[in-house]
Design goal:
With about 500 residues, the chain is mainly beta.
Amino acid sequence: MKRTILYLICILLPAVGLRAQTATAPRAANNSVQTTLLSSFKLPAKVYEICFLDGKLHISTEGMLFAVGIYGDRLGFPEIDTALTAIDPLMTYAVRHPSSGAFYYTKNDAKGVSQLYEYYERKPGKFDSRRIKPFGFSYSVEHPVFSADGRAMVFASDCPIGFGGRDLWFCELRNGEWQYPQNMGHRINTEGDETMPAIYGEFLVFASDGRNDSYGLHDLYATRLVALEQTGDTVMMYPIGRSAVHSLEAPFCSADDDFGFTTHGNAGGWWLSRDTAGNEVFHSYSGRLDCVRLSGKVTDTKGLVIAGAEVTVNRGRRDETTTRCDSEGQYTLFLQPDREYELSFAAQDYFVYNQALSLSRNKEDRLYAEESYNVTLMGFDLDTPYSYADLFGSSVSSELSAAGRTRVDAIARFLTENPHLKLTIVSAYDQSDDKPFCSLLNNSRLRALNEYVVAKGVPQSAVATSTTRPSAAAAQDEAEESMLPGAAQSSLTVFFIFSR
């Protein structure tokens, strides 16, 4: 079965912000993408723009621009963004063109309309700014982002020709000129606002408040930049805006407003949420998002769900993470494509199930490729009696047979995987006419079983032997012995009794 997995690792960052509030607990990650609450903070005014530029996060509020340094696995304290405001004190957002390195930024004009500018070198050592106006387009240009090759620009605008509120638009760069923008269409745009686009690999991520599948008011959504559709042997390519749109889901979407998704490639990124009181909370994630989401259910052999079963993902030496199934036995993991993983499924009183996985990602429309993998955990049948033929080489031998070693290996493994259990090996032999010989043989076999189980890693303190059968086992054994031939009645019958 083709499977894959991306697991996003927590990054723990210190509290940041002005007049810092007490940080709350991280949101539930749906047993999947691990994210970290950076801080709950209140800047002097409402946050309008967020961007990642030249190694820093830049946060635009009403009338003020802040810069936040990134130092390995932590964020610095927000400071006035003197570097960008020196270029233009009214700057609200900045981005670099990926191929030319040109510096684009936005600022509001006297009417409060966001306009696009380029900061360029007018002559050696002398820089200036000029307005960039896509051909024939006289409306606002907000939060522009570029495709990887720099040939397409996506931005938000309140142009009244759209579907309502703010829409997402794109335009192409031809012969050094930006062409007339095109609305990205009804799949992406709604009667509400679509804002703050970000390009993540082959996907466009944006915030929207006009969809029916939202967790709160504003949520984060993703769509493939270019749609691919195969008919027979022909692959048709459609322009931006033709692919299906999907929610990023929890933990990126919550009952609060979620927006401002900002990425720095496959290393990770951030997003912002705002509660009803206006408090803003930064969150971080790490790893790739264009991953494979592996989900499934853990049950026992009777089909009953095992709530709280542990799923451990091992990505290599000293790099493993464990999560728990929910009350319905469901688990969800996000795994990176084309990486080797070792998965372990474990629950108390069950055998551990191990599975090596390396999943592949194709050209899915969804940011998360979907794979399903259900697991059945084996318990141990505590009521099964074993005759000498099940365990030993002959009716007079105390040496375990190959089949006997296989059976006892399973018992030893069950004990090592469930160290809270103890084992009592109970025997029965009182149907024999030659009791002295059977007693001697019985003791020899009990020693052999005890030593074998201990040799397999079970602590000696967890193993005991007994010749007194529990009442339930005795009753079952009597019914079975009445049907055994005489030769078998003089032989050992063994019960493996587990207790806590």
